[in-house]
């Protein structure tokens, strides 16, 4: 049974049809590369899966169960975590505060609960160590490099045991060394049985880490192939329209 | 002890040890102190007090200390509520007018010979109603805080004038004596409003630092969109922030009426400016995401000490507005400079 399935998903913004009858299946332990030009509908699809807005038509299934997300928290409760393109971080808070934002650890008794700063710092440190990042849990995010900020956003998805991790252009604004680290992390997520959707413009990243690639063009899915059966040239042709459907 | 969040992975892998990450040098306490605007305002306040005590010995008298602390307590309590709103990236221009309507509502209840606690409940209720309306329109209808609270500034003042029949209410009936003690009394030689200010400052400092709600307030001001995506109940927290601001203004109004012994519909006129100035001078960032309870207290203290010092130095009290306005601009300018340094 697929861990995530989209059936005939469509989305209209007024008169504009952003997505049209998209089907997609994702198995546990699989990395899917989602590619397409700007405006192809990749981000719209991710935002629908993540609960940012509902689809105009179609159905979403998680572990075979039909789901309807009114807000991102509901998607997260179903095991869907997202690393947003803008990373969705609060610059005025520390790295550990960002990692645990909305899921703060507390201690106390009865109705009297206060933040467990020490434990949050410790656990955030563990997550950064796992990511091989030297991000300091107590440092403010606004003082951090692009790679460290990326580590904070990715560490946040590891707080729970997610079924699906959606990553929107995670390697777009980081150094070559950090790209390799992020790709390693994606492999580790896959090895741990998590399904990953990687939205990327970077062909080498997709062909390096993905098992399958889906190509979007003008709101429709024009290809869904195993990486071993495709090539960068073919995917480029599908993105630009030089190849119609594969 | 209990933890209320999902489990993290049990063990760290990779090449970077947890001891290595946690052991990296953090900012020292001294560095944190020197970076705090509230700290420098405290130093400035101390210098002014020392200078004025030398220049005008009466400045340092117990009577003057009593007057100064009591005077800034009202603004300080309002500034605490304003701090919460400003940290979320909002503004509350209606707090002065809320004081007016609360004063009149409480005064009318006392005049009708109801007990003191009924007057307190009605006053706080009137303030809370204004705050809930502000918060609902800002958080759920998505209107600009500036527009909403500017509207409430006019509405609340108008209500105060209509309810009072444009007259001063001073015949407080049997509940008046107890009501006046809250704002007009003293404990251990310090005015009651000052004790309330100190207690509320400590409470807010703990809430901002130690609770998830406090963290959510900071997160909303830092990046509201991100806070929303991560599951922070942004709308509810903003509603609560405006309600708290209005409640703080209502409490200040009740204390002020108790101290002055009369309720007038003009109470709190232009106080919103002084409350905003106090928070900004104390280090709150008008763009949101920064601020603290101690900053609100020390900011309100600085404004009152300067006002008092000007009077003692023989400067016309009408210049006070010029100084308050200048301080707001100066504080924002300093924040801008600090922000650029950080970048």
List keywords for this structure.
heterodimer, A: 246 residues, alpha/beta, Rossmann fold, 2 domains, 6-stranded mixed sheet, 4-stranded antiparallel sheet, 12 strands, B: 343 residues, mainly alpha, two-stranded antiparallel sheet, 2 strands, 1% strand, globular, disordered N terminus
Characterization of this structure:
- With 246 residues, chain A is α/β, with parallel strands linked by helices.
- Chain A folds into two domains: 1-79 and 161-246, P-loop containing nucleotide triphosphate hydrolases (Rossmann fold, 3-Layer(aba) Sandwich), CATH 3.40.50; 92-160, no CATH class.
- Chain A has eight helices and twelve strands.
- Chain A has helices spanning 42-49, 72-77, 95-99, 117-130, 146-157, 176-191, 203-209, 232-240; strands at 4-13, 16-26, 31-36, 57-62, 65-67, 80-83, 106-109, 112-115, 164-168, 195-199, 212-217, 220-226.
- Chain A has a six-stranded mixed beta sheet, sandwiched between helices.
- The mean pLDDT of chain A is 88.
- With 343 residues, chain B is mainly alpha-helical.
- Chain B has helices at residues 18-22, 29-34, 37-55, 62-87, 95-111, 116-139, 145-164, 176-184, 192-210, 212-222, 224-229, 234-260, 271-281, 293-312, 320-342, and strands at 186-187, 190-191.
- In chain B, strand 1 and strand 2 (190-191) form a beta hairpin.
- The longest helix of chain B has 27 residues, at 234-260.
- Mean pLDDT of chain B is 87; it is low at 1-15.
